[in-house]
Amino acid sequence: MDCIFCKIVNNEIPSIKVYEDDRVFAFMDINPLNEGHLLVIPKAHAATIHEISEADFVAVTSATHKLATAVKKALNPKGINLMQLNGKAANQVVPHLHVHIVPRWSGDGLTICKWELTAGDMEKIKAVGRQIENALT
Ligand code: 5GP
Ligand code: ZN
User: Fold this and answer.
1) How far is ligand 2, taken at its centre, from the CA of residue 56, in Å?
2) Within the chain, what is the greatest distance between any pair of CA atoms?
3) pTM assigned to the model
4) Which of 42, 35, 37, 32 has its CA nearest to residue 3?
5) Residue 3 neighbours by CB under 8 Å, 6+ apart
6) Which of 39, 96, 99 to mutate to test the pocket of ligand 1 (most atoms within 8 A of CB)?
């Protein structure tokens, strides 16, 4: 499969590895949004949240927790953004699931968390909440 992150896991493309276990691989992003920007991925290929197994997602989440703790200890950021994009419509570029760990400092100039907040229609919010709740199996 022609997947750049699978190639990184298999050492066919070099990377700056920071962490590895039986299910997870973590490495430095080559276009860092900030100092210490890391990517945490499952070793088994899965494009998005819809393809990854629950066990692999739990393993990625657990490694993300470990790595965020290490980032705090190593770099002492004042905040950390975790981002995980699924699908082109959500701006995912590399179709192998990954969690971004982005250390943040006040005034670092990043705008990724500037969401415009607009009050929603409570009836609509309630109806959509119920729709999702009913879809849980
Ligand atoms: P996405 O938009 O899919 O969530 O982000 C993909 C990320 O992968 C980007 O932040 C990009 O810099 C990173 N990336 C893409 N290709 C490579 C690569 O070959 N090596 C590393 N280390 N990071 C990569
Ligand atoms: Zn892959």
Assistant:
1) 13
2) 52
3) 0.93
4) 42
5) 45, 95, 96
6) 39
pLDDT digits (tens, 9 = 90+) for 80-125: 999 999 999 999 999 999 999 999 999 998 886 556 788 999 999 9
**Is 106's C-beta closer than 6 angstroms to any atom of ligand 1?**
no
33 in contact with ligand 1, CB cutoff 6 A = no
Q: What's the CA gap between 50 and 40, in Å, rounded?
A: 17
pLDDT of residue 115: 66
CATH 3.40.50.10470 fits 4-110, yes or no: no
Residue with tokens 């993300």: 64
Among candidate residues 50, 65, 96, 98, the one labeled active-site is 98
How does pLDDT run across 38-90, given as a tens digit for each residue? 999 999 999 999 999 999 999 999 999 999 999 999 999 999 999 999 999 99
Contact status, residue 102 vs residue 81, Cβ threshold 8 Å:
yes
- 86: which 2 tokens? 């699924």
